[in-house]
Amino acid sequence: MRYPRGMPLGIFVLIAGITILSIFAIERGERDRDAAQLNARAIAISSALERRANASSAYLRAGAALLSTMDDIPASDFRRFVSELRLDADYRGAEGIGWAQLVRGGEIDEYNAMLAREGMENITVYPLPADGEQIAVPVTFLQPDTERNRRALGFNMYSEPTRRTAMDDAETSARPTASDTIVLQQEGEGDAPGFVIYMPVFEAGPGGRSLKGFIYSPFNAEDFLQSALALEDAGSYGVRLYDSDTDSGNLLASTFEGDLSNRDTINKLVTIANNPWRLAVSEVDDSGLSGLSMATLIFGLLVASLLMLLVRMLTQQAQEDESALQWFEEQASIRNSLTRELNHRVKNTLANVLSIIALTRRRADDVEEFADGLDGRIRALSATHDLLTQSDWGSTPVKSVLDAELLPYAHKADHSVSLQGPEVELAPNDALSLGLAVHELATNAAKYGALSQPGGQVSVDWKMVSDKLVRVEWLERGGPPVKQDRKRGFGTDLIERIVAHELRHPVELDFEPEGVRCVLLIPVRRATEFMIRANRSETATGK
User: Fold this and answer.
1) Where would I find the CHASE domain in this sequence (predicted)?
2) pLDDT computed for residue 119 by the predictor
3) Which of 226, 363, 401, 500 has its CA 20 to 30 A from that of 198?
4) How far is residue 100's CA from residue 153's CA, in Å, rounded to a whole number?
């Protein structure tokens, strides 16, 4: 009875928490089991890939040992050697086995003649070694003898950088070495990715061993992956094979065409003939929650829904009462803030009026001059106040202040007034200061400056010099020459003292011979102090 709302809510939270913890525990167990299965499948597939590559390397090592003992390698002997390997039964995934003889730059014609003697009159070395290259490694024989494999005969593999790098690495390490991703010459116009495993063949000579050529096997990457999966089935997982890192541009082969980026994935490093590759095995089926988790979730939702209805009935009235109390507190806070703000505004306005009266009295020679000067300045202050009242004492555009003060002069035909600049909003006090300064400049221009005679021009330009500062420039041209021996007037004191003090930035006021120039730097303040009115408006309209 002491907690009519807390007890049902506590029961609701307790049951909801138990439900969530139960589902979490069930799903974590399921995820651990799936992760273990995924890791085991990735290990099995990576082992199958390495076994398939090791079998290929073993054939190439045996071939290299045989070919290194032969002075010449005729086509018939090479065909007999390959046929005895029974590639169709034991070497699935490869295009076959080939022999690429090392040909020096001056031996190409002799090499082409040897091909002719072997019955391959239409086969020649291509492309020829480029300038600076001393050797070529053309495809001499490639078994089995198929139409697809004949496309590669005569191709100078040493002319292609990726193949050349693999051959150089194989020669240095003297063991089978796989190339990075290439497109096999057998593909013709196709672009299916593949790779080649090279095994160097050396011959003994008086100066030691020397490179004789390479026995190699070309692989279509998709066929190679499928041949490995024949040993270890991928099951319900997606398998992707990458050259080096798992970037989409390095993809060699895949068993799944969809997007696996958001699925659980295991990456394994696979060494294929001395070349590190990456195997990615991912879950394909997104089964969601398990059956037990779904049953637990449904039961928990039913219980939670019943408690939610009960809690809603008990707390609805309390929420309405709390909302009403908050509304009254907000109204009281707004009234207090507005009272303090109004007091601040009145003090500032009275301070400006007192300063204007003091300076006007100091510069006036008689009561009439004092009244006229005071009247104009109070009217300028009033015009800016009207703008601030229209905006509910919010921010005021620079152009609106200038329009209000220069309205009496804007439509005269004998002179021109130009206003140009971006949309910039000023705080109330800064708008008042700008209005006073422009009024004094306009009054001076109408009496002695560019607005006092036909042809005069007044331009007011403003621009942002930073995120928190706007520069306003007043410039007069076409008026009477400005006297340089003039005495200091009230307008100068007002602008350089009161306005500069209010804006917290110095004012540049230059009486150049061709016209007055004044530069004001005005802060662009954040409107956080105006948020009270926004809140008041929203509260009044029920938003």
Assistant:
1) 69-280
2) 84
3) 226
4) 9
For 333-531, CATH number out of 3.40.710.10, 3.30.565.10, 1.10.357.10, 2.60.40.60 equals: 3.30.565.10
Q: Say yes or no to pLDDT of 271 above 80.
A: yes
CA distance 62 to 42: 30
C-alpha to C-alpha distance for 223 and 225, rounded to whole angstroms: 5
Report pLDDT for 407. Answer: 78
List the domain boundaries for the chain.
1-288, 333-531
294-308, 381-395, 474-488, range with greatest mean pLDDT: 474-488
If one counts every other C-beta atom within 10 angstroms of the C-beta of residue 457, the result is 16
Domain 1-288 fold: Beta-Lactamase (3.30.450)
* CB-based burial label for 103 (10 Å; 0-12, 13-18, 19+): buried
Tell if the pTM clears 0.90, that is, is over it.
no
Collapsing DSSP to helix, strand or coil, 274 comes out as coil
Average pLDDT over residues 37-50: 89
The C-alpha atoms of residue 224 and residue 52 are separated, in whole angstroms, by 8
395 SS3 class: coil
